[in-house]
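Incident review: delayed structure delivery

Summary: a single-chain prediction request sat in the queue longer than the usual turnaround. Root cause was a stuck worker, restarted by the on-call engineer. No data loss occurred. The affected request and its eventual output are reproduced below so the record is complete for anyone auditing the incident later.

Affected input:
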Amino acid sequence: MAEKSRALANVSGTVDKVGNVFINATSGFANVHQSIWQHTIGGYQVLHKWLDDRRKAGRSLSQDDITHWLRVYAALQATQKLMAQVDEAIEANGGWPGEGKDNALCAFSQNHPPPDAATLAAEQMAQKEQLKAQKKAASAIKNKAVSASPTGATSLFDFDDDLDALAAAAGNAP
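Output delivered after worker restart:
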């Protein structure tokens, strides 16, 4: 793996935005597109993190590791194509609601402004109401289950004891 102080990639300075990702002084991946190298998920640059985690662990890349990295690269490439198709479909169907002509948005933009305080407060209230409704529904289910027991059992274990008692009262074995 690359030494700690050595940069893993040289893709940003190229004219066609395609470059190399280095594993060590003599090995690496060629023809890596800058957009795929810089693709982030959860705030992490996917391909860089994958390689860097192995460097930190002191691992050498096996042939299976190299194949896996290439598959991740291909998956990110396909993902970016799908993201572009989604954005094109949204644009073809009138764009996002409330989108102004000078304020272009896309489904996967990471450069959009944060919501205002009123929007956040409304979302929090909606979440609280949803939680209350879920608790109410769970309580209703629990109450229905209690009323389903002939003796008011509140769990399967209690209900099993109730069945034994009912069987004994009827003169049958538990």
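Verification: The first helix runs from residue 34 to 37.
Action items: add queue-age alerting; document worker restart procedure.
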